[in-house]
Design goal:
479 residues, alpha/beta, Spore Coat Polysaccharide Biosynthesis Protein SpsA, Chain A, UDP N-Acetylglucosamine Acyltransferase, domain 1, 3 domains, 7-stranded mixed sheet, 10 helices, elongated, binds uridine-diphosphate-N-acetylglucosamine, binds calcium ion
């Protein structure tokens, strides 16, 4: 027998009940598409080839796979004539396929790699031609039922709609996940008919046909029945998402992460979180986000493809493709956009937006500022309300704020402009020329005070009255 191992994933159906312009298997579940999760689960066991059967919206599925699962092959099933037909098409397109073939469904994303390992191991050890993964569930309505003899041997699968009363009482269901011997599968698929209530070619019939042809057929019962759950509509998708969330969160907590409120913490399967990280309620960690040891995130923070260094603190903020250095602090209410890179001990505070800019080690942008296309040197101070005017309506320009420099409040830095290391910008300046080291730049109108203006121009007003009383108080006694 060949030692090859491959996987065929059925994903040709549109998933009408999703009511979507997107095929069902491309719907997202904590960082991966549904089919992406299934492919991931098959990765370790299917050492040779992974094949996805596509049909409805095939181009969308192919494009997605090319981007997210390079090396995965597709086979086109023009018409969805049944699960048996789908596998038959795949085997016909791949005549050289041999050894063990795992079959799984693209819309059952909670399957674990370990379970597939167990399935294939049991299948190969027992020398079986077909091994079906089954689950014992409380409500088997709609599923295929596993019919066994008194000795417990698997006889066949019967679909719910084709089953009689006794068969319907069986709570062991077909998960639609199998391990087959490729040669036997080929041989038996040639024999299946459409003699069933749906008039489809049922893959499930291979179990009975293989057994009748004298091959060994068996089953592996899954420990955790949630692994075989499929998804037909968006309410079920939300249910799967909660189950996966709990799984991911439990694993993280066991690995030393504190989650204050696991039910409002949504961490993608693709994100990484180090030990002793504290995550407060209401956070999402998406995509390739990675949070290093000892950092504190939240409450109410969304991080997408963002790297957070150890011991950094991010409070009530939103970050996308940003990097937060070790021990840096962000928030509350900060917005880090793509290319925001905060150095060690840097601070970005309340109502500050940073885009495509480096904030050097120990530099501070504490309040109400916009920093775009800029390089801020180490330990520089960007005071409240500073705006980097990076866009002239046509092009973006770069701004430099040198190491240890101080930019006063409410200044606008009109790019491109270069403030050297160790320079000052006076508060309220509009800077459009470079500032050299050690210089103070003041770029604002001079203040002029006009004595007696209120009495002359606003006589009898509240202001005039207040001015009069203040002047009386300031007059030396006795005058
Ligand atoms: C199937 C099983 C049933 C099992 C259940 C578990 C059969 C006949 N029945 O039923 O025993 O309990 O899964 O969820 O196999 N697909 C194709 N091409 C086709 C038909 C289906 O790619 O021509 C894909 C679908 O997109 C889907 C998967 O195969 O991802 C399962 O097909 P579906 O029609 O949903 O089978 P069920 O009726 O759920
Ligand atoms: Ca189904």
């Amino acid at each position: 027998m060949s030692s090859e191992r491959s996987a065929i994933i059925l994903a040709a159906g549109l998933g009408t009940r999703m009511k979507s312009s997107k095929p069902k298997v491309l719907h997202e579940l904590l960082g991966r598409s549904l089919v992406g999760h299934v492919l991931r689960a098959t990765k370790t066991v299917a050492t040779d080839r992974r094949i996805v059967v596509v049909g409805a919206a095939a181009d969308q599925v192919r494009t997605h796979l090319a981007e997210h699962a390079p090396g995965v092959e597709t086979v086109y099933q023009a018409e969805q004539l049944g699960t048996g037909h789908a596998v038959r098409i795949a085997l016909e397109a791949l005549p050289e396929l041999a050894g063990t073939v795992v079959v799984a469904c693209g819309d059952a994303p909670l399957l674990r790699a370990d379970t597939l390992d167990r399935l294939v191991e049991s299948h190969e050890k027992a020398g079986q031609a077909a091994t079906v993964l089954t689950a014992v569930v409380d409500d088997p309505t709609g599923f295929g039922r596993i019919v066994r003899d008194e000795a417990g041997n698997v006889l066949r699968n019967v679909e719910h709609r084709d089953a009689d009363e006794t068969e319907r009482a069986v709570r062991e269901i077909n998960s639609s996940i199998y391990a087959f011997d490729a040669a036997v599968l080929r041989e038996q698929l040639a024999k299946i008919t459409t003699a069933n209530d749906q008039g489809e070619e049922y893959l499930t019939d291979v179990l009975e046909l293989a057994r009748e042809a004298g091959h060994a057929v068996g089953a592996v019962v899954v420990d955790d029945p949630t692994e075989v759950l499929g998804c037909n509509d968006r309410a079920q998708l939300a249910g799967l998402r909660r189950i996966l969330r709990d799984r991911i969160n439990t694993e993280l907590m066991r690995s030393g992460v504190t989650l204050e409120d696991p039910e409002t913490t949504w961490i993608d399967a693709t994100a990484q979180v180090g030990a002793d990280v504290l995550i407060r309620p209401g956070c999402q960690l998406k995509g390739a986000t990675a949070v290093d040891e000892g950092a504190e995130i939240g409450p109410d923070t969304t991080l997408t493809d963002t790297i957070v260094g150890s011991d950094a603190v991010v409070i009530r903020s939103h970050a996308d493709q940003a990097t937060v250095g070790e021990s840096a602090t962000v928030g509350p209410f900060s917005y880090l956009r793509p290319g925001a890179k905060l150095g060690e001990d840097a601070k970005v505070g309340a109502y500050v937006e940073v885009k495509k800019s480096e904030i050097g080690p120990g530099a501070k942008v504490p309040h109400l500022s916009y920093v775009g296309d800029a390089t801020v040197g180490a330990k520089a101070n960007v005071s409240a309300g500073v705006i980097v005017a990076n866009y002239d309506g046509v092009a973006k320009h770069h701004t430099v704020i040198g190491e240890g420099s101080f930019v006063g409040s409410d200044s606008v830095l009109i790019a491109p402009v270069d403030i050297a290391d160790g320079a000052y910008v006076a508060a309220g300046s509009a800077i459009n020329a470079d500032v050299a080291p050690g210089e103070l730049a003041i770029a604002r109108g001079r203040q002029a005070n006009k004595p007696g203006w209120v009495a002359a121009n606003r006589p009898g007003t509240v202001t005039d009255g207040a001015a009069g009383r203040a002047e009386d108080e300031r007059r030396p006694a006795g005058e």
